[in-house]
Amino acid sequence: MTNDLQNRLENIKQKIQRSASDCARDPKQITLIAVSKTYPTSDIQTLFECGQQHFGENYVQEWLQKLENLRHLPIQWHFIGPIQSNKIKHIASNAYWVHSVNSLKTAQKLSQHRPATLPDLNICIQINISGETSKQGIRPEDTLHLCGEIQKLPHLNLRGLMCIAQETTDQKILTEQFTQMQSLLHQLQTPYPCMDTLSMGMSSDLELAIAHGATHVRVGSAIFGIRKPKNS
Ligand SMILES: *Cc1c(COP(=O)(O)O)cnc(C)c1O
């Protein structure tokens, strides 16, 4: 079991290295986030012992339970799930990054609840790049305005954009969406040079995301194995 996890982690790391060198990028510019939602604390512990430091979680309740048992480890937690306003306090006080900010109200509450004793919270704005109604995120054309507002808030560090590309194997559609993300970030970097992050690419599309400038890939099932469906 431990070996399987370790092997899959190594495979993904190699994949990232290959994808980076294929497009002449430095693999050090790409951070692997192991997305541990629905997987047990023991798997996180095992991967941490193999050198993995960045983990992503989606569900606050589940995450808090895991945190209880992992407090002793210096894990860097990325919150990547939908943000409910009654859970914001927990997110603001335990996350190192939040990738799924999609409104000013959410950003304001994160700012308000971020403990001043902690470093500023790194923020990505989630973009609904596929335009599917089922998807979280804001429209690309609304991003510039939201960036301006978030920039004014204390205790937050506006870092970039996040997306979940359409669930398809059609490389043309994926390429189009990742290209749009890349050019959107590029446009925003003129007024907001602090934005240096593109959080995109998952188990099935990380190579293409890296080819289009991804700096953070969020990989779950390709490391942990098939995820059981969650009913909440
Ligand atoms: C679950 C999830 C992932 C990981 O997905 P896999 O396909 O298992 O790699 C990445 N990002 C977000 C936002 C997720 O919810």
Q: What's the topology here?
A:
Layout: H1 2-22, E1 31-35, H2 41-49, E2 54-57, H3 60-70, E3 76-79, H4 88-94, E4 97-101, H5 104-113, E5 121-127, H6 143-151, E6 156-163, H7 171-189, E7 197-199, H8 206-211, E8 216-219, H9 221-224
Parallel strand pairs: 1-2, 1-8, 2-3, 3-4, 4-5, 5-6, 6-7
The structure holds pyridoxal-5'-phosphate.
Could you characterize what this model shows?
With 232 residues, this protein is of the alpha/beta class. The protein has helices at residues 2-22, 41-49, 60-70, 88-94, 104-113, 143-151, 171-189, 206-211, 221-224; strands at residues 31-35, 54-57, 76-79, 97-101, 121-127, 156-163, 197-199, 216-219. The protein has an eight-stranded parallel β-sheet. Helix 4 crosses helix 5 (104-113). The longest helix is centred in the N-terminal third of the chain and has 21 residues, at 2-22. It is globular and about 45 Å long. The model has no long low-confidence stretch (mean pLDDT 96). The structure holds pyridoxal-5'-phosphate. Pyridoxal-5'-phosphate is lined by residues 35, 37, 58, 80, 164, 202-204, 218-222.
